[in-house]
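ok new one. same drill as before - structure tokens go in, u give me an amino acid for every spot. 439 of them this time. try not to just spam alanines like last time pls lmao
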């Protein structure tokens, strides 16, 4: 038998890319590839890239530069660029880095096996189509090997919102939802392989409207159907737009037993002027009312958000409005970014905030968010939570898992295995994780 070929995939950006990388590795498995953890012994290197901020794209070019020596030493080595930089920059990548053999966009990676074969014959191959066919229908069914207790499952891709700063509607295209039956099949397969928690993914996941047996299903409908999958214990979803937070989804947070009390609901900014210029299509007040309704449905809900500081024309007063909104919400976790100019998006044309001002605002914003995050984490001490254990910790006898609210929790006890879901009392709160005792 011939030696398996080795595939090194490096994933940048969001969880959807993590999911896509898994599916790409599975697709190339049919070509005899097995994954390796190092680029040094790889026969193929694939960078699954992110274009959301300028730095994310620049990192890809510097990483490619690092492979020059490898390619020179091993001319058969194939180098591919996938994901959103591939989609956005296409041929430009091959011009800037002629050693790249193939470029594949996020909607056409089911064609990777053919592309790999062509690259093997010395061709340069590029495919950044938005094909009519659904890539998931063309990918081989997922392998049956056992896997960890927590998995991602992409249910929706693309976005029709066109926030003025964001490249997603251009790189990932229009909103498309996968059929409900396919998602349920994939979820059952994952559960059969040991998965107990599924995070449903989509760039705008709560806009999900996939075909069901009796017309289009909402995300809430899909979550309720997943709630009936035996062996699946936890359901999460990310990432959502406030305007697609429908009544049935809010109700699911009150009533659906397996839906976890954690919600990532980005608002980006707290000033109505900036929200309008961002084309977010809601006000700060509307967002706060929505949070109230969600907390009425699920009082212990932990909220997470995304924030952009230094959006064009953001003044200190606008920024203060963002801080006030954060004070009003009390986030359990959050991601915050300096605005990054993306060519082709409307905000790139407007008056930019100086870099040092952005730095200063980001620091102040992150200080507030860290304080909130820490306070909510400390408030867990003394409480009982469910913990889904994932892996051994660094200390002897220790296991690490995730709480219902997504905190990392360490427990030292005998007889816990990855995949166990146990009740735990939280006894201590450290900088990045909680310590618990089994109940
Ligand atoms: N600059 C900075 N942050 C951005 N995001 C999206 N586009 C930009 C940009 N041009 C952030 C938003 C989004 C998250 C995924 O990335 O906060 O919610
Ligand atoms: Fe980008 Fe999210 Fe806005 Fe869509 S809703 S354009 S993905 S920030």
């Amino acid at each position: 038998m011939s030696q398996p070929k080795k595939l090194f995939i490096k994933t940048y950006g969001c969880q959807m890319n993590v999911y896509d990388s898994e599916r790409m590795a599975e697709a190339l498995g049919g070509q005899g590839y097995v994954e390796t953890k190092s680029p040094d012994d790889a026969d193929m290197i694939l960078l699954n890239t992110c274009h959301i901020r300028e730095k994310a794209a620049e990192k890809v070019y510097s990483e490619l530069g690092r492979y020059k020596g490898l390619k020179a030493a091993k001319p058969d080595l194939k180098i591919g660029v996938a994901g959103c930089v591939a989609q956005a920059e296409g041929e430009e990548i091959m011009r800037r880095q002629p050693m790249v053999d193939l470029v594949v966009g996020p909607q056409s990676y089911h064609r990777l096996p053919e592309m790999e074969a062509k690259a093997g014959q010395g061709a340069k191959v590029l495919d950044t189509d938005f094909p009519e066919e659904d890539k998931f229908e063309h990918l081989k069914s997922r392998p049956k090997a056992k896997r960890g207790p927590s998995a991602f499952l992409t249910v929706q891709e693309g976005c029709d919102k066109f926030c003025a700063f964001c490249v997603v509607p251009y790189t990932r295209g229009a909103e498309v939802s996968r059929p409900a039956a396919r998602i349920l099949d994939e979820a059952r397969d994952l559960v059969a392989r040991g998965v107990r928690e599924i995070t449903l993914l989509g760039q705008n996941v709560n806009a999900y409207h996939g075909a069901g047996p009796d017309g289009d299903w909402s995300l809430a409908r899909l979550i309720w159907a997943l709630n009936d999958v035996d062996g699946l214990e936890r359901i999460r979803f990310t990432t959502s737009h406030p305007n697609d937070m429908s009544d049935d989804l809010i109700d699911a947070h009150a009533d659906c037993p397996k839906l976890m009390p954690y919600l990532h609901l980005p608002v980006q900014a707290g000033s109505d002027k900036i929200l309008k210029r961002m084309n977010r299509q809601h006000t700060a007040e509307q967002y706060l009312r929505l949070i109230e309704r969600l907390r009425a449905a699920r009082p212990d809900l932990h909220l997470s958000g995304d924030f952009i500081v230094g959006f064009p024309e953001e003044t200190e007063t606008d920024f203060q409005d963002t801080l006030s909104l954060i004070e009003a919400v009390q986030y359990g976790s959050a991601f915050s970014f300096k605005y990054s100019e993306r060519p082709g998006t409307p905000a790139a044309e407007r008056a930019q905030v100086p870099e040092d001002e952005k730095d200063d605002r980001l620091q102040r914003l992150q200080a507030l968010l860290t304080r909130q995050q820490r306070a909510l984490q400390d408030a867990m001490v003394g409480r009982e939570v469910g913990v889904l254990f994932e892996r051994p910790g660094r200390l002897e006898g220790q296991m690490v898992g995730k709480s219902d609210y997504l905190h990392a929790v360490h427990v030292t006890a005998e007889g816990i295995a990855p995949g166990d879901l146990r009740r735990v009392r939280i006894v201590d709160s450290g900088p990045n994780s909680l310590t618990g005792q089994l109940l």
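The chain has 15 helices and 21 strands. and btw Residues 52-53, 165-166, 266, 268, 306, 308, 337, 339-340, 342 surround 5'-deoxyadenosine (ligand 1) (CB under 6 Å).
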